[in-house]
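To: structure desk
From: M.T.
Subject: fold request, one chain
Message: Could you run this one when you get a chance? Sequence is below, nothing fancy, just the single chain.
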Amino acid sequence: MHFTIQREALLKPLQLVAGVVERRQTLPVLSNVLLVVEGQQLSLTGTDLEVELVGRVQLEEPAEPGEITVPARKLMDICKSLSNDALIDIKLDESKLIVKAGRSRFTLSTLPANDFPTVEEGPGSLTFTLVQSKLRRLIERTSFAMAQQDVRYYLNGMLLEVSAGILRAVATDGHRLAMCSMSADIEHADRHQVIVPRKGILEMARLLTEQDGTVSIVLGQHHIRATTGEFTFTSKLVDGKFPDYERVLPKGGDKLVLGDRQALREAFSRTAILSNEKYRGIRLQLASGQLKIQANNPEQEEAEEEISVEYNGDSLEIGFNVSYLLDVLGVMTTEQVRLILSDSNSSALVQESDNDDSAYVVMPMRL
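Reply: Done. Structure tokens follow.
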């Protein structure tokens, strides 16, 4: 194996692929990246057995074919340390990889390509193509609500649901729920659901960098695969049953509040400073035309804000974790947001004022 490549051409795919590779590995080969040269193409693969990412680069100069695995982090650090316009010469010499650029020379240890695990290909059951920016928006609007390390492992990921012409993403950690839908050219009459693990979703979002580019998605029985121009990403699916999100959506709330998103966000942020650091509770008091926000903490400190809102129902007092409200307002983009409430023990539904494609549910707190 022998090829030359510009530093920039190698660094971009290497950084993305190295992001998948785990540092603390039981299997040494998993901290390596697989390099394969075939014809005029170099492919780089990283995996942690859950997710796999393959990046492809066209080589400008003729190359000798071959395949080998080398330490991902070290190869990336070497590339980063070279000058921007460096031409890198990479050659396999017996069991060492020789990396040369200008007057620099590095010798890296390798492990055979045969030791490198590949994520098994299952039969693809459903294939469709989306615009990258739309899928990215879907993920950005919901991923914050995924659980981090919940024992209910199916919450540590995102539900992707396909039904006639619609792709929907849902995430929940049991205290809040985020849902976003987009119309998509998908011919599939039945409802098809998969749960993509947290790491898989976040890595996939990093690939969606071309605003108008497309991404092709394959949903198999045990895997999801996403292919953009030069990358193919594969993730195992979580085997479990996602909660019935439609039952969680509050129905019949009779108290409708319309407010300015930025003003609410700033008021919540200020009040949060004096909330209890552990529970982050704030109290909302609704009366005609105004919302009063209060927080206090064990040190007997208090914060209070008053903000004008469009509301003309009965007065209501309800408590929330302020972080959850701020997360929701942080991903919304419209000037006005609407809050639908029913009583102090029922979840709130938060939506953009003129847009029904996203819905957020936040459970109340007893204060």
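Reply (cont.): The chain has three domains: 2-115, 126-247, 255-365. Let me know if you need anything else for the meeting.
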